[in-house]
Write a structure and sequence with these properties.
Number of helices: 9
Radius of gyration: 18 Å
Shape: globular
Length: 208
Amino acid sequence: MTSALLPAFAKGFALSAGLIIAIGAQNMFVLRQGLKREHVWPIVLFCAAADACLIVAGVSGLGSVLAVVPGLSLALGLGGAAFLAWYGVSALRRAASPTALIVDQQVGVSLGAALAGTAAFTFLNPHVYIDTVMLMGAVGTSLPPVERAPFMAGAASASFAWFASLGFGARFLAPLFAKPAAWRILDLAIGVMMLALAASLLRGALAS
């Protein structure tokens, strides 16, 4: 990469980082799997690859197409709200069950189930299309053609760096989560957050 293209790479990295480094459903799921040390690499790679594909699609013009698809926002909102509500209730049930608090005693999920959950958190969130496809797509397409590839590379690099840090950095919190009360607090926080996000998605979908 030549020095002339570094600003485009940095712009993509900074914009992507600003959009994904926030407390949300997908990030909380990755954090929890990281704490359990369960299928972390596949989940991190899936999240990063999905973001990369959405970024490329946005810069390639998919954002303008999605903006005019009738009913898409409603369908995504309703589907996302239903999934988040289900996951939120599940987290609250774990928080209320003493037998589900210690990570070493928890029943693990299969790789397929973990990736299915990751896919749901990724693609059933309407904001991923607004932020990653439409917003980043608009910024990317405004750049000269020669700068679009480094912009997309920078954005994808930020996504991978964040999810890897979240998934593998979670193990440094393992001593804290050796205490059952810590898992209860985490699952309680996850449950409340998921239900709040589900309500927000539902309101947004019905208002659109």
